[in-house]
Design brief:
The complex is a heterodimer of chains A (403) and B (384).
Chain A (H helix, E strand, L loop, with lengths): L5 E2 L10 H11 L12 H20 L7 E4 L2 H15 L6 E5 L4 H12 L3 E5 L9 H7 L4 E5 L13 H11 L2 E5 L18 E5 L10 E5 L27 H36 L5 E3 L10 E6 L4 H7 L3 E2 L15 H5 L4 H5 L1 E5 L6 H21 L1 H7 L13
Parallel strand pairs in A: 1-11, 3-4, 3-5, 5-6, 6-7
Antiparallel strand pairs in A: 2-8, 7-8, 9-10, 10-12
Chain B lengths: L4 E2 L10 H11 L11 H20 L7 E4 L2 H14 L5 E5 L4 H10 L5 E5 L9 H9 L4 E3 L13 H9 L4 E5 L11 H6 L4 E5 L10 E5 L25 H12 L1 H6 L1 H17 L3 E2 L10 E5 L5 H10 L2 E2 L15 H5 L4 H4 L3 E4 L6 H25 L1
Parallel strand pairs in B: 1-11, 3-4, 3-5, 5-6, 6-7
Antiparallel strand pairs in B: 2-8, 7-8, 9-10, 10-12
The chains are: A alpha/beta (403), B alpha/beta (384).
């Protein structure tokens, strides 16, 4: 028997892996110490657990544990990285470069810096969602101090050319920040090779708990930041505040499991994603958003033309999916990511993001395919637009009457 | 293997079993992102809404006045820096005995054109009224005074301080992290006399680490410190930590029960204090009104770090200063502000009791302390 609704929204958040939860529970119960307590065994026990977790997080990305700063999540990491570096290096220049398809945590932070007098270039992406390196190079200026590009896009799953951008930035002495919230466990990340200076990480997209993330801060060559949260001087002064031990333990375990299992897991998920794609490809007038090869295995973002996204979501309530990023889905604006790809409002509105994960089965995918066929057929039957399209009317040329 | 006795509840408290039970489903089966619109997401949203009501009810606030953060430090940073960003720079005042997560952001503001006044305290750790009134005459724009001090447990008459500052138009914030669960905290009543914001934290009241709140009068403008997505009415972005927030709510449900047990804690504290006095201990803030659970003391010619180390080996977990600044070997800024000589301050040890502690544990502790003291004094005598 299938458990409905079927969860296909792993990019919004993932379940905590039961093995992760099991590892966390002792640190919620009997091992409850504050890791900053230096005077007794409760504190030392918590501190040891925090350091073990730091080690596991570092290992997944090829970093040194000393380069890992705990935060409350990727949003805080993005804020700390971008504001912290911009403020520290503002004497060198006040120009930043980012991309139009970044997460709000990056875009809103950049807007804030603009209000403070920084200048930000928001790069366009190509139709496939990827950055054009020539366009990027052309945007660089002598006063550029920071570049922020996400590793994997949360809506369309495309993988940006981080290695290439890193080389260019290092060459010019520009700090390079990467939001890798959607990348951990999905792409191999080796910071010993990648020329990335700052990297935002979070647990709850990689089968760990919510409320915990980290910022990688490179030590060689050393990257400096201005702290954004002040207090007791935790995390070597980069980020004050009592560490939530059980959450940190959870992130460590989640990242350890990712390191061990990602190679096999991603192939299994890719097969499921391809099964979903194949199952939907015989539907007329569907458009895949974002490049299909430079893309993580678990993402499929499709626009179903001549269907209104909201009614689609209502019709497929047995599938837990998003129409746009979870963080922006409170608004009915069409996704700014799809708009940046050049999709028109209608296609952006009719898009569905399927993100698959560790606990999906073939049976679930088959159910989803069958349900989508059924509902799309019905919705289109009701749609006057679909009828017009079938009759060969060019909808772009229709003059709509105002109400 | 014997279980050590935990006497460090001001650093963090054990999780209440009922809180654990409330949280567990949100760490396992219920995992949605509260911003998602499907069933998983909506269930998470409802859980957060319920927790918000529980937190609000526990301190007499309206749910819309509760802004969830990742911890007390973040909440204090948000208020101090966030409120200051919406004002033109002027005079800012925090008490000299605040937690570093109030003092440090206040010091940061001096780089943005603010003048900082650290309000003096008397020898008992209470706000020095003369200094306070002199401050008010200079019309500060933002004042922050903690309800209860984490190191000494000394309580401030925040209602009276806010009443006095109100005429100047200053925003008044109080860090209530150590007070909540030990003394009654009523935001509605405090708000009526001019307290505009108050900080709470889950892990000091039997809740989990990782959730806290700024309770904020909605008329006060505050600039978010973490941008991106517009969660918490735009005041604090980032995917909500559902499990910890649910745990915070559940811990707040137990607050009344905790407060009913406060007289028993006072009994334990008095038992401890009378034993300490017979050993010749100095009790800091002795004459002031204090939290039911906190005793900060020093024994003549005994180093605090050493004593705490010995006591740990003997099975008692306590702190030699605030947990959050224990890495710092300097004598406590709180005791220095109270005029305690550096030498004596270096001897400071804090016992912070919890609701599970017993009279027998306190009696054992006093016996152990007495014998530890004899050993240490013998060693000192030999060294001399």
């Amino acid at each position: 028997m299938l458990n409905l609704p079927i969860y296909l929204d792993y990019s919004a958040t993932t379940p905590v892996d039961p093995r992760v939860a099991e590892k966390m529970i002792p640190y919620l119960c009997e091992k409850f110490g504050n890791p900053a307590s230096r005077s007794h065994a409760f504190g030392w026990e918590a501190e040891a657990a925090v350091e073990e977790a730091r080690d596991n997080v570092a290992k997944l990305i090829g970093a040194d544990p000393k380069e890992i700063i705990w935060t409350s999540g990727a949003t805080e990491s993005d804020n700390l990285a971008i504001k912290g570096a911009a403020h520290f290096y503002s004497g060198k220049g006040k120009h930043l470069i980012t991309v139009k398809t970044e997460h709000k945590a990056v875009l809103d932070t950049c807007r804030e810096l603009e209000r403070e007098g920084f200048e930000v270039t928001y790069l366009d992406v190509k139709e496939d969602g990827l950055i054009d390196l020539e366009v990027f190079k052309a945007a660089l200026r002598p006063d550029t101090i920071l570049v922020s590009v996400m590793y994997v896009n949360n809506e369309i799953g495309v993988i940006q050319p981080i290695a290439e951008i890193g080389e260019i930035c290092r060459d010019k002495g520009i700090i390079f920040h990467v939001d890798a919230a959607q990348a951990t466990g999905k792409v191999d990340i080796d910071l010993a090779k990648l020329k990335v200076d700052l990297m935002s990480l979070c647990a709850h997209k990689t089968y760990g708990p919510k409320g915990i993330g980290a910022l990688y801060v490179r030590r060689k060559p050393r990257v400096r930041l201005e702290a954004q949260m002040h207090g007791g001087g935790h995390e070597r002064g980069f980020r004050s505040g009592t560490l939530a031990t059980h959450q940190i333990v959870g992130m460590g375990e989640a990242f350890r499991l990712a390191r061990e299992e990602m190679a096999v897991e991603n192939e299994r998920i890719r097969a499921l994603r391809d099964r979903l794609l194949k199952g939907l490809s015989d539907i007329d007038q569907v458009y895949i958003n974002g490049d299909l090869t430079q893309r993580v295995a678990h993402n499929l973002n499709i626009s179903f033309a001549y269907i209104e996204g909201e009614s689609m979501l209502m019709a497929i309530k047995d599938l837990a999916v998003s129409s746009g990023s979870a963080c922006t889905s409170a608004s009915l604006e069409p996704s700014y990511v799809l708009r940046a790809l050049g999709r028109d409002d209608e296609l952006a509105h009719s898009s569905i993001r399927f993100t698959l994960g560790r606990f999906n089965s073939e049976e679930e995918i088959d159910y989803a395919v069958k349900l989508l066929h059924e509902k799309i057929g019905k919705l289109r039957e009701l749609s006057p637009l679909w009828e017009m399209f079938k009759d060969g009317v060019d909808l772009g040329s229709v003059q709509w009457a105002a109400h | 293997m014997f279980a050590p006795v935990y006497f460090d509840h001001n650093a963090t408290t054990p999780l209440e079993p009922a809180v654990f039970d409330a949280m567990l489903p949100w760490l396992t089966g219920h995992f949605g992102n509260a911003s998602s619109r499907h069933d998983y997401g909506r269930a998470a949203r409802r859980a957060i809404d319920e927790a918000r009501s529980q937190v609000a009810a526990a301190v007499g606030a309206h749910p819309t006045e509760v802004v969830f953060t990742s911890g007390g430090s973040e909440a204090n940073n948000l208020l101090i820096k966030g409120a200051a960003s919406c004002l033109t720079p002027g005079l800012l005042a925090v008490s000299a005995i605040e937690h570093p997560c109030v003092i440090k952001p206040a010091e940061q503001l001096t780089r943005r054109g603010w003048r900082l006044h650290k309000i003096a305290v008397d020898a008992q750790g209470r706000i020095d009224i003369d200094d306070y009134q002199a401050l008010l005459a200079q019309r500060p724009k933002l004042v922050s005074v903690m309800l209860a001090n984490n190191e000494t447990g000394v309580l401030q008459d925040v209602a009276s301080l806010a009443t006095q500052s109100r005429a100047t138009g200053a925003l008044f914030h109080t860090d209530a992290v150590q007070a909540i669960g030990k003394v009654a905290v009523d935001f509605r009543r405090l708000n009526a006399v001019g307290v505009t914001a108050l900080t709470l934290s889950a892990h000091k009241i039997g809740g989990p680490q990782g959730a806290a709140a700024l309770v904020l009068d909605k008329r006060v403008e505050v600039e978010p410190q973490i941008a991106g997505g517009g969660h918490e009415r735009g005041l604090r972005s980032g995917t909500e930590n559902v499990a910890a927030i649910v745990g915070f709510g559940a811990a707040c449900e137990l607050l009344e029960q905790r407060l009913t047990a406060a007289p028993r804690l006072i009994g334990l504290r008095l038992q401890l204090e009378s034993g300490l006095r017979t050993m010749g201990a100095t009790l800091f803030g002795e004459a002031a009104e204090r939290l039911p659970n906190t005793v900060c003391f020093a024994l003549p010619e005994v180093d605090g770090e050493t004593l705490v180390g010995q006591l740990d080996r003997a099975g008692f977990a306590l702190a030699s200063g605030a947990a959050c600044s224990s890495a710092n070997p300097e004598p406590s800024h709180v005791l220095r502000a109270m005029g305690v000589p550096a030498e004596l301050a270096r001897g400071a040890v804090r016992v912070s009791l919890g609701y599970a502690n017993t009279a027998a544990q306190v009696a054992d502790f006093l016996t152990t302390l007495q014998s530890t003291l004899c050993q240490l004094q013998r060693l000192t005598a030999m060294a001399v």
